[in-house]
Amino acid sequence: MKTNIALFNIISNLFGKLITAVLGILIPKLIIDYYGSEINGLVTSLIGIFVYVNLLEAGVGGASVQALYSAIAKKNKTKINGILAATSKFYKKTSIVYLVCVTTIALLYPVLVKTGINYWLVVAIVLTIALTSFIEYYFKGIYNVLLLADNKSYILVVSSTILSVLSSIIKVLLIIFEFSIVFVLFSVLILTTLRILFIVSYVKKNYKFLDLSVTPDFSAISKKSAVLIQQVLSVIINNVDILILTIFCNLKLVSLYTVYNIICIQVLFIPKMFSESLTAGFGHLFVEDKLRFKMLFDSFEALYTYLMFTVMIIAYILMLPFIKLYTADITDINYVDPWLPLLFVSIRLLESLREPSLIVASIAGHFNQLKWYAIFEAILNISLSILLVRKYGIYGVLIATIIAMLFYTIAVIRYSNKYLLRRSWIIPVRRWFINLILGSVIVYLANCFKYTITSYFDFGVVFVVFLICIGGGYLSLFSIVEAKALKVVMGYISIFFHKIRKKLLI
Length: 506
Description:
- The protein is built from 18 helices and no strands.
- It has 506 residues and is mostly helical.
- Helix 11 (290-326) packs antiparallel against helix 12.
- It is globular and about 60 Å long.
- The relative contact order is 0.11.
- The mean pLDDT is 80.
């Protein structure tokens, strides 16, 4: 793995995710304040629905990335062109179906979903979000695939960060000056189009050999059906709760779900940053040197697990105080619920714990081997959610998700460790329990610690104190229990800064 590229991906991802996290929490707050919880629930519900429409991609993106790892590592330009030509042809074929789907949703959604919002306003919102989603689907697909496989995720991250900042500034101005929500969403459409034009021009400039007119290599993306199962799983885990709450409950409850969920998602940006930044590098290393891959991957998994627990324990302790501040002036629904932080953190913990194992399976192309586990999880999640939502509401769908995720998480970790890493699956499980024990002790001590939060300044001070104490506790545990992994990580960081210093002296 190229150290400088990998760490550059991490650094760009760090700043990108940090900015996106802050903005991702700010904008929903403004939408709720100015337009109400129902509009916020509507927008969230629609975005979740269009994620399902994106399944028309049928796994071709993931299969293409996996196929490109080997072609790029071997610098086989003919193979690269063949894979991307097949990818391009597939996206073009499905784009027509995509348009039909979004038009149908625009017409039926206002009729089927219970809401007090004006029919034509709902239609306008649906069409604006749909057009943004379609443009990304049709024009961005193959270029994202190439950049991800070529370990250049920083290009996507930087452009996405710039888009987020500009989009958020424009959104804030439009919201404050009380423009219609349709204009707010339309600004995103314009900026999304500009970002795609940038990515397309970058690829054309830096990959001059790219030729999509060659004979498509459909055999290279033959695993797309198996990849689709994994994508369906991911979509269900992240969106089925919102869909079921939309159908069986109301949009205000969707807004409640969104507020807690978005906080959990945004605070996970640091662990996610590592997994996203290093995936392509691991893909190349898996092809070139499997022994070294296993050694580095073990170190990555150890660091990822400790980072993830650190972040989620802090999130669990401080989520409710933050929600009280965040929704202090919102009266159309009560957002403060002492049980929701535990349920949401449990979901994100389970989702994150299986991430390293899913990366290994994806790199190795073992999509088909995991599909039946994924199918069972999807069926279990949907069935339990529908069964529990009527009596227990939001608690029911969250508990259903936890049960389904627990099954698939154990199955994926067992498979990847046994058949791909050739080691005991107890190794990662032991790491979880060690971190969970420390986390439980920290939560107990935090509950004994008396503090009052009445402003964002107070929250910031308490957050820094907990960050230092909890981060220090987990770092100490990591250095003791994972001394070998720490040595590997520090070695790569040292190499990176040595290269930077060397360049500065030239």
